[in-house]
Specification:
Blueprint (H helix, E strand, L loop, with lengths): L1 H14 L27 E4 L1 E2 L4 E2 L1 E7 L4 E3 L1 E8 L6 E13 L1 H4 L5 E11 L5 E6 L4 E4 L5 E6 L2 E6 L6 E3 L4 E11 L7 E4 L10 E3 L10 E2 L7 E4 L2 H21 L1
Parallel strand pairs: 1-10
Antiparallel strand pairs: 1-15, 2-3, 4-14, 4-16, 5-13, 6-12, 6-15, 6-18, 7-8, 7-14, 9-12, 10-11, 16-17
Helix pairs in contact: 1-3
């Protein structure tokens, strides 16, 4: 009976429709480093420097844990001062890695842009993830504002029609920008810092020219994001786990 139950769960997983967009700790991922979860007492790093009146590109790296499509991307962010506004789009890009030993800067950073796509509101899902932490706001070109916001949001992309194809063991950089519908210019977004630290720190750039991107070290901060399997791959992982359990039970 136990074997039939496990096998039945696996079959249901294979036959089920697309998984819910939200990602929760413990769900599958495709990162050899741990998923970079948001720090509940951390900070949000601004995508728009009010001090310098300059838009910023933020990026962080991961190591691929499974060759194939980067079809599911999830990240955490906040509104400055919890002042909400409508989001017109996110621009998400993936870059090659320049290791610290080759960069000449003493830290690793993105190299060449390998893939980019603009996602409109009907192409991503956002939810309120947490509203418990009293957290600061970091302007990379300005000041840090303590006790700035409490709400943390999670944006989920669970379908990309022409996804980037990653290779197991390779290091890539995820870069994100946004376009906000805010005619009064009082709302801003910031990428949440992470509890988890891997490899070198995150970086930022004030350039929008792909030929002259200059990346600056975030000095100890990493950003909160996770790369996950597409629903079909997740179902195969569940099936594989179920088959292993069946074999172990049969052997015992």
């Amino acid at each position: 009976m136990r074997k039939r139950t496990i096998l039945g769960m696996c079959i249901l997983a294979m036959c089920a429709g697309p998984a819910l967009a939200d990602w929760n700790p413990g769900d599958p991922d495709k990162m050899l480093n741990d998923p970079q979860l948001p720090d509940p007492l951390g900070a949000a790093v601004a995508w728009n420097s009010q001090a310098a009146q300059q838009r910023i590109v933020l990026a962080d790296d991961w190591m691929c844990g499974g060759s194939g499509a980067v079809a599911d991307i999830h990240w955490w962010w906040a509104f400055q001062g919890d002042i909400a506004a409508s989001i017109n789009s996110f621009t998400v890009s993936i870059w090659s890695d320049v290791p610290a030993a080759q960069s000449g800067l003493g830290y690793s950073h993105p190299g060449q842009q390998l893939w980019s796509q603009i996602f409109l509101p009907n192409q991503f899902v956002t939810r309120l993830y947490d509203d418990q932490g009293d957290q600061s706001w970091i302007d990379p070109l300005g000041d840090t504002l303590p006790s700035n916001h409490v709400n943390t949001y999670q944006t989920n992309i669970d379908f990309i029609d022409q996804p980037f194809q990653q290779t197991f063991g390779e290091i890539y950089w995820l870069a994100i920008e946004y376009d906000l519908a805010d005619p009064l210019n009082v709302a801003d977004l910031g990428w949440k810092t992470s509890l988890n630290h891997w490899n070198d720190s995150a970086v930022f750039s004030t350039s929008v020219d792909l030929q002259s991107m200059s990346w600056i070290d975030m000095q100890g901060f990493d950003f909160a994001f996770v790369i996950t399997p597409e629903p079909a791959s997740a179902a195969l992982m569940i099936l594989g786990t179920g088959l292993v359990l069946i074999r172990r039970r049969h052997a015992s």
